[in-house]
């Protein structure tokens, strides 16, 4: 996204991303002889496609024009914190002390990213930060909706929502034109972003949820900032400020608190799945 966002703009980048993802999932569906009944769950696919794909992808693509990959990855990982906060508002229940501390920790982490060490960030980063936070909020909305949504297989959810996202983003293309024709590096980046980082990633993630359950699958959330910071440093020559590392620690710690994640629970879940197999 960092490589291709400025050249393609948010709309064309995300339309290409979800289209390549949808096509790759279509190939998998054909190979596995899985038929997608899109018309039977059109409303559901469009809701998931909007809040779990199109809108957050567009917001992150907008933010990627300005922010380094490390900051984007940390903002992305606040999705679980947003999910917990929205769940509390949705159910009108009182949060536990653990959840309150986790929410505060997440806010502190984002505040550190936004408010400190601004010399490392270019002009216009404020709006990009807001877009990244709003994108993570969309994931929180989607996760809460999914709890009350029709029971559909994880593969159909991934496949159907990608085609819905294609249709949602399509009308935006005339209003956000391409700024320059993509070169080989940008073209490869977009294809990999769609096929590997979206299509294949959705398959792996939903399979983790089915096999290990949400708590263990959620452990990937804690790896997003680590790899975002690492790849940005190694391949994009991005500086890693002390605020980035400190903000990441607060966000990861807050995510662990609000989700009730623990290594002990994850290992116990893994042992249970292995025993069932």
Automatic annotation (TrEMBL):
Matches recorded under Pfam families: EamA
Subcellular location: Membrane
Keyword hit for Metal-binding: no
Gene3D superfamilies: 1.10.3730.20
Main localization (coarse): membrane
Membrane topology: Multi-pass membrane protein
Transmembrane segments annotated in the record for this chain: 12-32, 44-64, 70-90, 97-116, 128-146, 158-178, 184-205, 217-236, 242-263
Descriptive protein name: Membrane protein
């Amino acid at each position: 996204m960092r490589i291709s966002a400025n050249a393609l703009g948010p709309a064309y980048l995300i339309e290409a991303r979800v289209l390549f993802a949808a096509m790759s999932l279509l190939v998998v569906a054909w190979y596995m002889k899985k038929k997608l009944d899109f018309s039977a769950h059109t409303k559901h696919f469009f809701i998931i496609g909007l809040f779990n794909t199109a809108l957050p992808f567009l917001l992150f693509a907008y933010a990627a024009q300005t922010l380094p990959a490390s900051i984007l990855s940390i903002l992305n990982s606040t999705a679980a914190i947003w999910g917990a906060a929205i769940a509390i508002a949705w159910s009108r229940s009182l949060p536990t002390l653990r959840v309150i501390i986790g929410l505060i920790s997440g806010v502190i982490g984002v505040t550190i990213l936004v408010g400190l060490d601004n010399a490392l960030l270019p002009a216009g980063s404020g709006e990009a930060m807001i877009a990244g936070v709003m994108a993570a909020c969309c994931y929180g909305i989607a996760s809460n909706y999914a709890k009350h949504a029709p029971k559909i297989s994880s593969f159909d959810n991934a496949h159907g929502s990608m085609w819905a996202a294609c249709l949602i983003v399509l009308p935006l293309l005339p209003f956000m034109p391409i700024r320059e024709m993509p070169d080989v590096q940008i073209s490869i980046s977009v294809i990999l972003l769609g096929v590997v980082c979206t299509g294949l990633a959705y398959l792996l993630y939903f399979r983790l949820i089915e096999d290990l359950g949400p708590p263990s699958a959620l452990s990937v959330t804690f790896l997003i900032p680590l790899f975002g910071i690492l790849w940005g440093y190694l391949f994009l020559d991005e500086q890693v400020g002390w605020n980035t590392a400190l903000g990441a620690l607060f966000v990861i710690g807050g995510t662990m608190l609000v989700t009730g994640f623990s290594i002990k629970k994850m290992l116990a879940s893994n042992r249970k799945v292995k025993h069932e197999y």
